[in-house]
Structure formats: structure tokens, C-alpha cells
Give the backbone structure.
Amino acid sequence: MDFLTNFGLTDFIFNSGLALIGVAVGIIFGAIPGMSATMAVAVFLPMTYVFKEVTPALYLLLGLYVGGISGGLIPAILINVPGTPSSVCTGFDGYPMARRGESERALKIGVVASFFGGIISLLVLAFLTPPLARMAIKFSAIEKFLIILFAMTVIAALSKGSMTKGVFAGFLGVLFSLIGELSLNNKMRMVPDAVEIFNYKLNLAQDLRSGFQLLPLLIGLFAITQMFQEAEKGMLSNNLNEGVTVEGARKFSFKDFAGQFVNVVRSSLIGTFMGILPGVGGSAASLIAYSQAKSWSKDPDKLGTGAPEGLIASESSNNGLTGGALVPLLSLGIPGDATTAVLIGAFMLHKIEVGPLFIQKYGDTWNQILIALLICNVIMFLIMFFSLKYMSNVVKIKSSRLYPLIMLMCVVGAYATRSGIMFDVWCLLIFGLLGYVMNKLGLPTAPFLIGFILGKDLEKYFIEAVRNNNYNLMVFFERPIAIGIWVLIALFLGYSIWDNFKGGSLEKAGIKG
Amino acid sequence: MQQVQEFLRQSLKIRNLHLFFPKVIGCICAILLVIIIIQRLIRCIRTGTPFINLKGYHFFDEGCDKLKLFGSLALTIGYLIALPVLHFVNASMIFIFLFGVLFDYNREKGFSFMSVLISAIIAVAGSWLTWYLFFQIFNITLP
């Protein structure tokens, strides 16, 4: 036993066990339409309170992330309903294959493509993050402010096809993050002193001293909002189409990947790149990779009729997101997507600041993240490839049975945020309703969350930059890196205006963020 | 430029510091809102549709299950009110059961005994297990 402890084997086995649980639960969340990887991570985040270190929490949460993204292919192929937005194109070819009786083949092609996508994005994460972080260490408050502004611009350029609504949601998130006390002068802003409702006095000045807490906000925004949306649809159960068989005529063979090397690498890199851009949904990655596969295909007419090529493009791109979205988070402190924004909560719980100094200060945690992602991808592959018959039954689970339990977990998580403040539990409802209304008005919630996370830093770096430079706004245009960031901002703004004029190609394609 | 510099110097004085950024962001939000309205106005003029068209407007989805939507909202509010009064296990058992019954209710078939029984089992087992796991084993504060 000592031998095992000395070599950290017990920790490794324990952490791998957590990754296994994470992946298995993530697949269930991903496979049930209406639930998502983000929701899985948000609901399970409070459970990580029990770990004294961040590493086991990361194994569990990354498992949920990888499993959640991968599980979406099951309903997309079997019932032509994508389990997650990132599987939007999987059904284009997967479902026709299933209709031909090749569901086993389609599912296995999807699983293998997902595995490749995950591994390629992991390599990009491992090699791109350290140099990016080394560069970011040299950043002063000016560059840090501009980088956050750049992230907000990218949200505008690529979120849901509607540029103005995306950027409005982002700045609304920033505004919400400013509520509470400013630590620089210890003064409150945007908080009424006391509110009386039905003779019940609400002490908002006390509850909101440190502002809205991230955890209740994101659980409300992603779990409670989703519950209301599913309730509106009537909590319909997903009946597995009886005409589809898991074992079919043509069996899977690795020969299906012959001649697909370029497609796999291209699609995985597209997914990874889309993951790096903040606020871009997985559906964009899937759709762009699919359209690229079609343009480069020798036989483009076959795509959409049950060609493995299209399935491979969609699945390798959406798993490419996982590593890509972690690149800006771990090098700049900017989350690449909604799920990695939720992961920030895990780092915050353990008082770890993600950003340029992360790899330098927490080298061990950084290595563990890479190992965790590798293990999660391997576990995902093993679970999904060898137990397809059983995993395909996941689509039959009624969401009406899971949502009451999710509600229970949400309450536990929100209450534990500050060890027992009921206001945090009420925030679940506040942000659940806000997310529901935002969706109705066509305002994307992912930019809102990213704006909320980055808002306080945006203010801090602006004040620092201006005060340290004699209140001269020209400092934002003087340093070479700053000018480079302005060029990038201009390029993305130009692209978004051009895209808007064109009629929002992403929106036309039916992409949701 | 010097006027801007002086304005910033005054705005960023330590006693006013907390108000400066919220005002800036509030203004940006207001400007963006105006742009969204103008964009809609232009689109309406181009397509010849009225700016505000309440006829045929639905805030809720077509075929919206209002019972489940408003029921879940009412149950959420009820659950949050009941938590400090009845405490975690009691409030959760009652409300998780009600959530289960509501979500599994079928308009055509009505309530089935099995559905209600399963909801009850999930509510009791879920609430006790969560309490035992988080409060007893992991020492996490529960309402």
C-alpha cells in the first residue's frame, strides 16, 4: 500500500474513478435532448466542495465535459435529434445510416471520430497554451483590458448570427458583475439599501456586498432556464424509433477511416479553433467543419445521404472544442465557451486564479489537466465503443424523472456557495427566469455569462491603466501589442459587420450558440 | 484631449471611483439597445411589416404546456419558501415529489398510480440520499 501511495498510484486510481463517473454521467446528460454538457458541469460543480484539492474536481468535471459533448451523437444518430447543439450535423449522415440498418457502424464511426477530435485538441492545448501564457505574462493592465475587449468583440462577431444582440448580452453580463462593493474604495453600487416585501425586510446591501455569486448565477442560467424551457415543451419523452436497430447489416471497420485522415485533422482543428474563440457555440464548429468536408469532398452529393465523411467531420470537430476552449482559459483567464466558464467555478472554489501565471504557479495542476483530458477521452472511447447496445438505451431515460433531482442538486449547490445564504438559492430563480426571458428575446446567454466573469477584471484593468498613465486614454494606442490587439478587434468587427450585411450566414444555417 | 484627461481625473477620484464604470457600461448597453431597435425598424421598413405587431404574437412557444411551465415556476417559488421553514429533507421530499408528478403528468392519460409511486420513491430516496451524502458524510451546510 505504501508503494502505491509513494508513486501517487492511489490518487491516480481515485482520480481515474472520478473521470469514469464523470464521463458516464456526462454521456447520459449529452444523450438526453434538452440537457447539455454545460448543465452537467454546472449541476455537479457543487459536489467538488468535498475535495480538498482541485485535481479530483477537475477529473470529475472534465469527464462530464468530454462525456457530455460525446453523448450527443447517440440521439442524433438513432432518433435524428441532436443531444447537444454541438451534434447538430451528426444526424445529417448518421440518421440515414441508421435507417439503412447501419446504426452500430454509424455510432462507432462517431465514437472513433470523437476520440480523434479530443486527442488532436489536447495536443493543441498542450503546445499552444504555454507560449500564449508566456506572452501574456508580459501584458500590462493596458493589454489585459484590450484582450478582454477583444474577447467581447469576438462574442459579438460570432454569437448566434446577431452581432448587436450578442454584444448587448455580453455588456449586460458586465453590468451585472459590477453590482456590489468596489474593493478599491469599499463603496456599494447599484444595490438598494433595504427592500420590504409583504412585511419581510430584504437586506440586499448585506446579501449583495460581494455581488451576485458565480455559482448560483450559472446554475440558474443553465439548469433552471433549461428546466423551464423543457416544462414549456411538456417534458416530452424520447421514444427510440423502433425501426432502428443497433446491430445492422454493415459492420464497423477501421477501414471506414481510410482516406479520412485529412478530414479528421481538418475538422478537429476547426473545432479546436472555434473552441479557442470565446462565446462561440459547438454548433458553429460542427456546421463549419461539415460545410468544409462537403466543399473538399470528392463526392459532395453523397454528404447528407448517410456518408461516413460528414459524420466524421461533425464528431471530430465537436470534440475538438474540449481542448480548444481550455486554451484561452488557462493562458489568458478568458473562457472559450459556456462549459469552460463554468469550470472557472471549480478553480475559484480552490482559490486558484486562472490566467497567464497559471502554468508557472500551478504546474502540477496544469499537468493533471492534460492527463485528465487524455484519460477522459480514453474512457469515453472505451465506454461508448464497447457498450453501445446499452448506451443507446440512455435515450429512453425520461427527462421528467431527472429534472426533479437536478432541482435538488441546484439548491444544494447554490446554498453551499457561501455556506448557508438563502439569497444565493433565490438567485437560482432570478437567473433561471432571466435566462428564460433572454432566450425568448433572442439574446444569447453564453456571452452574458462570459461578460459576467470578465466584467470585474475589465473595470480593474481600465482603472489601473488610466490612473497609472496620467489619465491619458492614448496609452491604449501606444504600445505595439496593444496596436496588434486593436487590429484584431477591427478585423473581427469588420467580419461581423460584413457577415451581418450578408444576412448572417451562421443564422441562415440555423446555428444556435 | 486635455478636457477628456481632466474629466477622467475627476471621475476616477477615489470617492467617485465606484460609479464611473457602471455608468460607462450602462451607457454602452443603452446605445446597443437603441441600435437593436433601429435595426429592427430598418428591417420592418424593408419588409413592410409593422414595428409592433401584437396580432399573432406569442411570447410562449406554440403548443406551450402552460400547466407544466407555470406549475414548475410556482413549485420552485414554493420550494424556496418552504426550505427555511420545513428544512431541507422535509421540504425536498414534498416538492421533489410534486415536481415529479407535475413533469410526468400526461394530459391524455391523466395520473397513473405507477407514475405517482415512482415520483414518491425518487423524492424520498433522492432527498434522504442527498442529505446523508452532503450533510452527514461531506459536512456541507444544507438549508
